[in-house]
Amino acid sequence: MPKGRLSATNLATYYHLNCDLYLHNVYHQSSGPESVLASQVVQAHFNRGMDWEKLLFRWLDNHCLLLPIPSAPIQAEDLAERILADSRDHFFVSGLTLRPPQQAFHELFREKGNEDVTFSVAKPDLLEIFRTADGMVVWRVVDAKSSENVKASHYVQIYFYTLCLTYILPQPRFRPSGSTAVWLPPSESSHSQPSFTDLKSINLSLLAPSLHTFLFGRLPRILEQPNGEPNWHYNPLCRNCPYEDACRSRTLVQGAVGSIPNLSHADANSVQNLLNVVQPDSGLSDIEQLHVVFQNQTRWKHLEKAYPTTFRKATKALGVAKRKGKTGVTMSTPLLDSAKSGEIQLTQRRSFTCPRSEDIAIVVSLLKDPSIRAVPIAYFCVSVFSNTASYKPPKPATGKVDQMVPTLASIIRSILSQTSILSTQCYVFSSAEHTALQSHLVEAALASDHSDADIRMCIGALASGASLLQTTYQPLILSGVFLSFLDRPHPVATDAEFRLYAERLGLNVSGSPEEIRCMVQAKLEALKAEANTPSLTPEDESRRTLLGQVPRVVTVKSEVEKLLALPMPGYWELEECAKVLVSEPSVPECPTGDEMLSNCITGSVEQLESQLKLRNWYVYATLNSLRTRASHGRPDLLVNPGRRLSANCMDICKDEQLRKLFFMQQFEVLTKLVELWKTRIEGCPDAPVIEFQNIAQGSRGLEYCFIVTAGALDMAIEKEKSFYEYIIVADHEDDEDIPVEALFDDLTIAGSVIPLNNFTRKRWDFQHPAVRDNLALVDLQDVSIRGRGRSKVTALTLNLWTGGTFQVEVGKKYRLSPRLVDFNITKVLATLFELDVRAGAGDVEQPDSPFWQLIKNPRRLRHVNTVTDDVIQASTSIQRLFREIHDLGNESAGALMLQASQLQAAKRILSNQLSVVWGPPGTFSRDAHQP
Ligand code: SF4
Is residue 1 very low, low, confident or very high in pLDDT (cuts 50, 70, 90)? Predict the structure, then answer.
């Protein structure tokens, strides 16, 4: 007999944890999750959920849309009676507590041949009620969730509630609506009110097949398994699971793959797939078995040949790499060695992203408070460390998030004001902090009251790639826009305009009109020349001395993971990592996230600030410990030196909205670039590997034929367009070489048509020499499947463009990965800047044009009711006429008949100043501008 019952929340938690053992434990163990104290983080999430629920209920009540009922298990008849007694056509019932219909569920379990599972009471947040004209009641379950998006775990919960109510509410008077919904909080700010637009519906028919199978098929079978049998994997999601202590011990005792830290479920599955095809040696744990396999060249070579994709995925997950040595190629297995021996191991991998040293290190810690949704960063702390005698670091600065931009800007400014050039690097510990910092800078640029100078300083110094965009595009934009103005025939530019141009070009405007004219024209000629034949700026020069893209903000945790294997099962954070890497008995222990959050919630600011400062000290100490270990015996592991600080960024628009749009365009490109750089620096581990077969003559020239030997090909083919959206480089046997992709500079040719012509070819010469000779641009022509059964292969036909000595060799393997192609960025930025300059000159002669209004005041483009009843009636009778003529056999009239959606679009176009009509070819969208 089961000792417990499952609640809908348990089912949702199961979907979040992806762990059969969790469900099994909840159902069969007497000490359940309730017996464990929740951490501050869990408590904060819970509080945020409760706050959102209260706000939503109050809002519904204020709008006369709430029917609260006592929160105790309610009988079906009582519930039906209360709903029917309410005369409103639309309202929400709150406080529902229901006993699941076990008898009805019994039949469903029996249909699948399973034993019953017992569920505890169901408590949906809201039951939405619509009364129809014929007196029927249509209902659906709505659950309030305080997260940013709807998750799979929410679906299982609302599906379960819906299922219960389907059997409880009497039919046919009560009819399920066919959908269910999650109500999310408003996204703009904590002061915004709930809105029906945040009610995210999903059709039940999309949920039912998989969730019904889970609830009545898979769930009872998971629960029936004997103790110890259910699937489990000790991993980073286990933090805060009530069974964590037992699972940590068990993973170590059993030598399970969870003994390796930070191995996700997907990675663990990849490893398990490899273990499934290995001939097992008796009595070995998973870790030992893998270790034995990778030490035996015959065994791993066989696996690599027989199961290339499984092998590649598993070796990637386990950080296993090939090394060329005197005895041939061997496998390096630092993570397995560390899990087996319990000692820290050096991975021997090179890092291009962690500088080996710098003059000044800026360390930033951010404390997130999950109970606050709108402002995820509650507190920040910036500490500056330096061993340089000429620089005296400021004291650590802490504060609430609104002070972060001015604080960082002031520190950056003070470093830039130094007479000597100092290399400077910013560090955060976790990738969550990295994301939060970058998002905060983006938001500050788009919608904050900070000074422009401070924002520009922070974006330029801390947003990866911002200075690259400036050096690549700014000369093009300035010269293009100003020259087009000066070249226009009418009216001729006035002295006042020349003065304005001079100001925008940063020139001295104190001379005579003639002098200013000459200065402007000389500057524009210089810009034009620079845009056409760019020269290497100091920023370019400094980039070329670095290998790969050293990020502006380095994530210390990722660098430790890359270079060291730590003997910690499941996961580690700074406090655990610092315990093994930093030994300083005189310094208090590193504070935990929970301890800091506790002080934040209770308002103990002094303690919190000293904890954040201590945390920054530990981040820096961990970084230095990593450097010491990495350089011990292998000084070449940290490839790059620290970068010189620069605060360049493109911020040339003055109008508030245009400036925001200008930033948004840049952030979009930067986001794409950063994603590309992240994977390239690792050697594109997820890129499909292709083997060259032969060359054939195609309709557009030579075509190169390859087959895919590893990885998945998830790439679109557009035969009409030849954008050369991909790059290939040789896939080497080991990871000692610098990935050529990491040296590729997308921006110089992102907007050029390939093949490059004599003029644009000059841009290719700006690429790193290793790129020019070892990388080709690729246009995907065709993908096909050849052969059958086990001999089935994916074949690719490619066009290649090479600007150096690169050549493909038959039988050799290559990595195929994307590059940035963007033909619009320069045009969009130039247009925004042009509008900005014209606005500054009082020269926007079309204040009523939709384009200008779309930017300045989109609300003015809302509904204008110009469609009269006469027009609608006339159009209806014309359509009727076409139908009649068509029915008489005239096919041409059929082509003039509008479908209902087309008619609707036409009416909207006539009723609004701006309408966006979209649809695939043949759906009227192209002709919609002339309905
Ligand atoms: S600690 Fe992890 S492995 Fe153990 S029951 Fe919880 S989720 Fe599953």
Answer: very low
Please tell me the number of Cα atoms within 13 Å of 563 on its side-chain side: 31
- Would 360-465+549-631 and 683-823 be classified into the same CATH topology? no
User: What phi and psi values does residue 369 have, to the nearest 5 degrees?
Assistant: -115, 105
**Percent of the chain clearing pLDDT 90 (strictly above):** 46
Candidate from 10, 14, 18, 21 with most ligand 1 atoms within 8 A of CB, to mutate: 21
Nearest in space to 246 (alpha carbons), one of 5, 6, 29, 43: 29
Q: Which two tokens stand for residue 685?
A: 């581990």
**Ligand 1, atom nearest to 247 Cα:** 4
* Beta bridge partners of residue 372, listed in sequence order: none
Pair of tokens at residue 675: 């994603």
Closest ligand 1 atom, residue 238 Cα? 2
Per-residue pLDDT, averaged over 376-382, amounts to: 89
CATH number corresponding to 360-465+549-631: 3.30.420
51 vs 184: CA distance, rounded Å: 12
Tell me which residue has its CA closest to atom 5 in ligand 1.
22
Q: Which residues line ligand 1 (CB under 6 A)?
A: 17, 19, 21-22, 25, 232, 234, 238, 241, 243-244, 247
| Residues 709, 846: Cα–Cα separation, whole Å | 58
Pick the CATH number of 683-823 from 2.40.30, 3.10.170, 3.40.50, 2.40.10: 2.40.30
Show me where the domains of the chain are located.
48-222, 236-343, 360-465+549-631, 470-545, 683-823, 862-931
DSSP annotation string for 231-262: -----GGGTT-TTHHHHHHHHHHHT-GGGSTT
544/802: higher pLDDT: 802
The answer, yes or no, to whether residue 315 has pLDDT greater than 70, is yes
Tell me: the pLDDT tens digits for 426-471? 999 999 999 999 989 988 888 778 888 999 999 999 988 888 888 8
Q: What is the mean pLDDT of residues 598-623?
A: 94
pLDDT at residue 929 in the model = 47
Two tokens, residue 657: 């909205």
What is the distance in A from the centroid of ligand 1 to the CA of 248? 9
